[in-house]
């Protein structure tokens, strides 16, 4: 076990006032552990799943199962048959703000989609008429498309453009935009994975600038009365609360929403409702999440699918 770096110590002091909390956060990072895996049921659940399912958290949606530590759901034949998609509980936590979306959603746009977890969660929960999943990095498209094919994610299209293109081509057209932003990935450390330079101020700054650019472009495609969800898997306030504060300053029509089921996880690092899960909570390596509503009244613009230059389409349930 390596001693905590100065940068990690500094971050812990910014995140927690209490020295015990600082110590448990640092301990979770320098002494990583495994967390129970989860699955999203994309098709109907099967009886007698040959995997041990943990007691659900109170707000856990019925299409999610948390499995016992060490379960390998990806090796079960039902996985290959597309019954479920595997993800970690941190992703479930982050996507769970979407449980607060309380109006019908016709179009969902996932701006940072590969390998597809948040897209599939949103598709299953909100059953949109159309799911548009964008992945800007070409070599990550294969896994996104193969997951959608395997899990039979219908009425969906995959696109591959920079967020600025969509801000221009499909403004005010989408009921829900998800930004699961590229980030420094500090929570990977709590899983025993590598994230080189993730605590370094220059990496944090570079990511924060990219996140602001992506969320600003994404905000422009949200329809009046639509939603914008922002999430990361990193701990730095610059990439999380500060991006959200920047967003509402720049686009004052976006109102951050209170998420009742996450109130115990509310971040004390900002006055606006934002939610964090930490590795020392024992459920997952950590996540940040917030949901905004576009309070503008007005007409939603019609979305021209042809303008998107889709690279994969499954409109009829075939793949
Ligand atoms: C945290 S991952 C997304 C995980 C995915 N939402 C899921 O739940 O499976 C962030 C994604 O953003 C993509 N990305 C990187 N740079 C980007 C950019 N400039 N604009 C949009 N997405 C970007 C990455 O390729 C990566 O796939």
UniProtKB/TrEMBL annotation:
N-terminal signal peptide: none
Active site: 233 (nucleophile)
Molecular function GO labels: RNA binding; RNA methyltransferase activity
Coiled-coil annotated residue ranges, if any: none
InterPro entries: MeTrfase_RsmB-F_NOP2_cat (IPR049560), MeTrfase_RsmB-F_NOP2_dom (IPR001678), RCMT (IPR023267), SAM-dependent_MTases_sf (IPR029063)
Location of the SAM-dependent MTase RsmB/NOP-type domain: 1-295
Top-level taxon: Bacteria
UniProt keyword tRNA processing, yes or no: no
Entries under Gene3D superfamilies matching the protein: Vaccinia Virus protein VP39
Keywords in alphabetical order: Methyltransferase, RNA-binding, S-adenosyl-L-methionine, Transferase
Biological-process GO terms, alphabetical: RNA methylation
Binding residue positions for S-adenosyl-L-methionine: 112-118, 135, 162, 180
Entry's family note: Belongs to the class I-like SAM-binding methyltransferase superfamily. RsmB/NOP family.
Name by which UniProt lists this protein: Fmu (Sun) domain-containing protein
Organism this protein belongs to: Fischerella major NIES-592
